[in-house]
Amino acid sequence: MKTYPYLIFPLLGLLVVSCKSPSVKISADFDKGSIGNMTETNSNHLSGSTQHWLKRDGIGDQYYWFYFKADQVKNKRVIFELKDLKGVYRETPHIVYTDYTQPVYSYDQKHWKRIKNVKYDTSTYTFVFSERFEEEPVWIAYAHPYPTSRLDELLEKVKSSEYAKISKLARTKEKRDISLVHITDHETPAEDKKNILILALQHAGEDAGGFMAEGIIQFLLSEAKEAVSARARFNYFIVPMMNPDGIFNGTSRYNMKMEDLNNIWLEDDKKQPEVTGLKNWADSWLSAGNDIDLFIDIHNHTQFHQYNVFIFQDHELDSLVTIMDKFWPIRIWHSEFKGSSCSYFYGRDIPSGTIELSQSHLGDGNYLTIEDYLSFGKGAVLALNEFYFD
User: Fold this and answer.
1) How far apart are the first and last CA of the chain?
2) What is the pTM of this model?
3) Which residues pair with 355 in a beta bridge?
4) Per-residue pLDDT tens over the stretch 373-386
């Protein structure tokens, strides 16, 4: 029997290499992707931080959003350690991670599950979570992501409806369109219709609002009897994505001029096309002798708060929220507006309110899903039907 001693060591080397577990690969170069530097400090243990986004005036530091792809993870339990999870919001400390923050993961960017093995250290502002993955690659996000591509797909479907018209309000710094969706039965006379203006996704990390706006649009274009009634009785004007630049680039809050769009509505500097475009539309609509009967701005909390809330300045909308709560869980919160879109429309004698959705759960431990947010949209339409006409 022949032997080849000179091959023994090279073969052993090959065996050692082949048995070694390949390093986990992290990337965020895609629609809404965002993550800071991540290093594999130990096998299948990655440590790093989220991307921090600094407001242009230097008094805001938003950090909480992440969305990345991990490869080389199949049949592995991978540990992710995120540090430096503290920021600044309106000149005050901003701490939003908790022991009940549960990120989401998906193998197809459509179907999402929660990561339940989590731990947050309040003394070091460090969040650790882990999951065993059955497939690869896997996409992991702070919460259910609403990318610009999802809106593009929705608008393509909307275009085919006889009840919808899409117009462009403005172009952003990165040349993306701000779209306004007008839904009504165009064959029904407009004289007695109520006019509802709805805005979503001013803040890039508040994705639940995008799903709720999509739920409103989907239901209004359906053939459900309540949707048929709504189209005959209302003009719905919906801006489903106010901040597509921030969404695409995965910022936690700002547009790509690093401005908080919801802080500048009372300014008149024309520097942020997103806000100026909607202001110009409203001016034109009102100047033509039309009304805006209600303005709603949809946001969401981080995963810190465990409730949905409708915020408005006086008691004018109390009964609306009571009706809404029959169709989906929401509570009342009275607060004075300061510089926001609601302050702008409220100052023009238009009833106005902000919806803040939870991104975790509603105090019952049942974590919210995309389907929940879509159903909230349907519930809002049903409530408005009853509030104005029943």
Assistant:
1) 95
2) 0.94
3) 298, 310
4) 999 999 999 999 99
